[in-house]
Design goal:
alpha+beta, six-stranded antiparallel beta barrel, four-stranded antiparallel β-sheet, 23 strands, 37% strand
Length: 371
């Protein structure tokens, strides 16, 4: 084979190889991206409608639960603690017996005081007619009466001391830790209480608001009672609701805040003294608030915005958020209340992109024909 023939054959082979490679590329070229999505395939998003509904106008704060009535139980007399009639943490009712002290010494004292008073009283009764007839002096009769009066006072004190051996609950509430066990000697007005009882129903929540909000709070308070909703510390899950019952008469000069208290019935005892909670003071209700889920609010360089869907395409709508209530955002401007809002968007969502819901995508002919 000549050199010319060899070059011609090699050229033909190269041309054939290039033609085959071009045909393979045309055949293997995907109709979409690496995941099989065609360029014109809509982005799947979650949609909701902006709504017009009543929403509260409220003040948010962090508060602490307080017992409205807390009692430290201490003995009024000295003695040995014989019996305990409750268990730690038990709810007790007013008048329920809690403790009994050793009664023997006080019963003996009462018997002696009663005997002495009876003798003195008998002496007064014996001298009374004699004093009227001047058989005894007035001074002698008055001394007998004074002695009887003193013994009567001692008798009454002995009766009180004996009653003190029986310690009862002064309020209805839940008991705390038992600080003294049966068999120990206790003394009157000991620094350590036997137990502390906290009233649980109703209960108070104390919190503070900035002094700048006080005039607005007072304005609404004059119109109606102010409702207070208590939640968990992070703002989730309502624990109860009640009414504002106290506004302090002075502003704290160190913090510039005013102390408030709300009373709640606490029927299920979800609130415990010392617990930190979220507090929402509801001033009034806005009847025509425009509301969207908080998850729909996006943040850009120029502020907040949402994606609205117009004729199947995403569009950016700048909005101003007035306040957040739980997982809802109240819109001050930017929406009318009838728009379709994207609540969950893919990262590649851009203005003008064609969008659809998962249900629409599943029902489309291209989805049904996909092998």
């Amino acid at each position: 084979m000549t050199r010319k023939t060899l070059l011609i054959s090699l050229f033909v082979v190269i041309i054939a190889a290039l033609s085959a490679l071009t045909a393979w590329r045309i055949t293997a070229k995907p109709h979409g991206d690496a995941r099989g999505k065609r360029p014109d395939q809509p982005l799947v998003v979650e949609l909701t409608a902006a709504k017009v509904q009543p929403m509260p106008i409220s003040l948010q704060a962090l508060g602490q639960v307080q017992s409205e009535h807390s009692v430290q139980i201490r003995p009024q007399i000295n003695g040995m603690l014989e019996e305990v009639y409750f268990t730690e943490g038990q709810t007790v009712t007013k008048g329920q017996r809690l403790f009994r002290l050793d009664r023997s010494a006080y019963e003996t004292a009462l018997t002696g005081a009663r005997t002495a008073w009876q003798a003195a009283d008998a002496q007064v009764k014996r001298l009374e007619p004699l004093a009227g007839k001047e058989y005894v002096t007035t001074q002698e009769y008055d001394n007998a009466r004074a002695a009887a009066g003193q013994l009567r006072a001692l008798l009454q004190q002995a009766e009180i001391n004996l009653a003190y051996t029986d310690i009862r609950a002064p309020i209805t509430g839940r008991t705390g830790s038992l600080n003294v066990k049966a068999g120990n000697l206790v003394t009157a007005n000991d620094a350590t209480p036997l137990v502390i009882i906290n009233q649980m129903q109703p209960i108070l929540v104390q919190y503070n608001i900035p002094q700048q909000l006080l005039p607005e709070l007072q304005r609404y308070q004059k119109q109606r009672g102010i409702r207070v909703v208590v939640t968990r510390e992070d703002g989730s899950g309502e624990l109860g609701e009640g009414e504002l019952v106290f506004i302090d008469n002075a502003v704290n000069a160190d913090t510039g805040t005013v102390t408030l208290k709300a009373r709640l019935r606490n029927e299920r005892e979800q609130l415990w003294p010392g617990q930190y909670v979220g507090v929402r003071t509801q001033l009034t209700v806005q009847n025509d608030a425009i509301v969207v889920p908080q998850a729909a609010i996006q943040t850009g360089q120029e502020g907040n915005f949402v994606y609205v869907v117009e004729q199947g395409k995403a569009a950016v709508r700048p909005v101003k958020v007035d306040r957040q209530v739980n997982d809802l955002a109240v819109i001050a401007s930017g929406l009318k209340g009838d728009e379709s809002i994207v609540t969950r968007a893919p990262r590649n969502l851009r203005p003008g992109a064609v969008v659809s819901t998962a249900a629409d995508a599943a029902a489309s002919p291209s989805a049904r024909n996909t092998p």
